[in-house]
Amino acid sequence: MTITGRGRVGRLIGAAFGLVFVQADVGTLPVRIGTPLRVPAAAAFVALVVPGRRTAPDGAAPGDGDDGLAAWRGPSLHLLGAGIAGCGAAGLALAAGGASASLIRVTAGVLPGALLLGSAWCAGRPRTGVTPTAC
Fold it and tell me: Where do the domains of the chain lie?
């Protein structure tokens, strides 16, 4: 079975933003470093978009019965928001300290992108036996 319906929309939005963050912010890095970051981000996004890639082990579609953005509610969203805000604050501190553009973009762009992609993956997993801090 595949994930369908409104529950998937929130995961796709988060994954799309994560992909854009990663793709846009690795531009200041050398190709030998940027490419290994771009490829997994793109692959993770494609795997979320292609139907049938995210099914639970028992065959049930994770997220069945979701109402809109239900997968993004609760403590896990608070952790995601805190992580992204922390990355932004660290990026600002690095900029104020005169750090290189590459370091700032990785800290304030690539890391939040990875957090968004990771949370989109975790949001699609079944919730039985999962704590808010684990995927």
Answer: 6-123
